[in-house]
Write a structure and sequence with these properties.
Blueprint lengths: L2 H11 L8 E5 L7 E3 L4 H4 L6 E4 L3 E6 L2 H6 L18 E5 L4 H12 L3 E6 L2 H15 L4 E5 L5 H15 L4 E4 L14 H30 L7 E6 L12 H21 L4 E8 L6 H4 L5 H7 L9 H9 L10 H13 L7 E4 L8
Parallel strand pairs: 2-3, 5-6, 5-8, 6-7, 8-9, 9-10, 10-11
Antiparallel strand pairs: 1-4, 3-4
The structure holds nicotinamide-adenine-dinucleotide.
């Protein structure tokens, strides 16, 4: 057995009914409370142990949070029940460096999560992690590089996370792109680009994350984990001249439902959150290439003379008269994690703009 197998098993063996210990792998440590072979581990491991050496594999440091595992200091908040839904749980957010992903990252950290900000923009991910660690006064965030369309890169990300903390409790597949255009004109290149990130990226991430969650569940059989994709209201209703995007998001709902049926055997729930438009995020509000500027310049909104006119036009289409934000989305994520009796669902967060039948 390798470290990448043993670390999630240890997280599963230390499961306390909500989550396991953080498990930090070191190829060598000098002393441990337990030294044994991989096969002896399930019998000999006892909850509360802080260090284990597995013959021929290396050392594992255990703790309530990352700092506790590495140097025995823990400032981890002690909360349980509804307030502790993600407390000290390992959460990964792809595309977490900006936009919705950044909002979700910030909200999950407020709720006590240990976060991996996984992004192609690794500089942005690491910068945000440093800011959050300073803000919280403990190690709560890590930046990690990933291109979700590249299987090797996805596998490398998952391996790095498992070696650093032992597993993944909540994986949020948020990285997504949009290229709008008429079906009569859109190039295959643009269509494939959107499909690769939004649809295939979700498949690749689930492919490599689900086996880790299976290992975590193996020792005790009651370790619930979550995979949540961030799709869109365009996963529920077609979007004019935006077929590549809506198609990829509708398709991801099919993946969610199918993966949910399979992974329920490992206690892994798979759901998707379908947000409305994030008007304050870069996609809409970027002063140079945001959709508000584009729609003003191309005259897409009849009679609009200013950016505010364009914004007001879109806000008026939402019964609750405002855009969606990271906090709105995170509330749905927390619901999906807390709810142990639902899987394979698409949860709208659209201010009433899209209503399910
Ligand atoms: N912005 C909206 O109005 C809106 C509405 C509904 C749903 N969504 C969905 O929410 C998610 C986030 O959207 P956003 O508007 O915040 O996006 P954004 O463009 O602001 O941020 C996307 C992030 O994903 C990263 N990224 C892009 N491609 C990647 C790849 N191949 N691998 C790894 N990282 C990659 C980018 O570097 C960036 O940090 C997307 O899935 C999007 O479809 C957005």
């Amino acid at each position: 057995m390798k470290a990448l197998t043993i670390a999630p098993l240890l997280r599963g063996l230390s499961f306390d009914g909500e989550k396991g210990d953080i498990i930090v792998y070191k190829s060598r440590i000098d002393y441990a409370e337990l030294t044994c072979s991989a096969t002896e581990l399930p019998e000999q491991f006892e909850k509360g142990m802080h260090s284990v050496i597995v013959d021929g594999v290396g050392g594992f440091l255990l703790g309530e949070d990352y700092d506790d595992a590495v140097n025995g200091t823990t400032l981890a908040p002690k909360v349980t029940g509804r307030a502790g839904v993600v407390n000290n749980k390992v959460c990964v957010v792809t595309g977490g460096a900006q936009g919705f992903g950044e909002g979700i990252v910030r909200e999950l950290v407020k709720n006590g999560a240990i976060i991996f900000i996984a992004d192609m923009n690794v500089g942005g991910a690491k910068k945000l992690a440093i800011e959050l660690n300073e803000q919280e006064g403990r190690t709560v965030a890590f930046g990690v590089a990933v291109n979700v369309t590249d299987e090797k890169s996805v596998k490398k990300m998952v391996d790095e996370i498992v070696k650093t903390v032992g597993g993944i409790d909540l994986f949020i597949s948020n990285a997504g792109v949009l290229k709008a255009g008429s079906v009569k004109e859109m190039t295959l290149k643009d269509f494939s680009f959107v499909t690769d990130v939004n649809y295939i990226g979700f498949f690749l991430c689930t492919k490599h994350v689900a086996p880790v969650m299976e290992l975590m569940n193996q020792p005790q059989g009651n370790y619930y984990t979550d995979i949540i994709s961030i799709s869109s209201k365009s996963a529920l209703e077609g979007s004019n001249k935006n077929g590549a995007y809506a198609g990829s998001k509708f398709g991801s709902v099919g993946l969610v439902q199918s993966f949910a049926k399979e992974l329920v055997a490992d206690n892994t729930k798979v759901n998707t959150v379908c947000p409305g438009n994030f008007f304050d995020g870069p996609l809409w509000s970027d002063p140079e290439k945001g959709l508000f500027v584009q729609y003003l310049n191309t005259g897409k909104v009849p009679g609009a003379k200013t950016l505010e006119d364009v914004r007001a036009f879109y806000e008026a289409q939402v019964p609750m008269n405002r855009g969606c934000d990271g906090e709105d989305v995170t509330k749905a994520i927390l619901y999906a994690v807390e709810q142990k009796y639902e899987t394979g669902q698409a949860i709208p967060v659209t201010g009433g703009q899209v209503m399910l039948n």
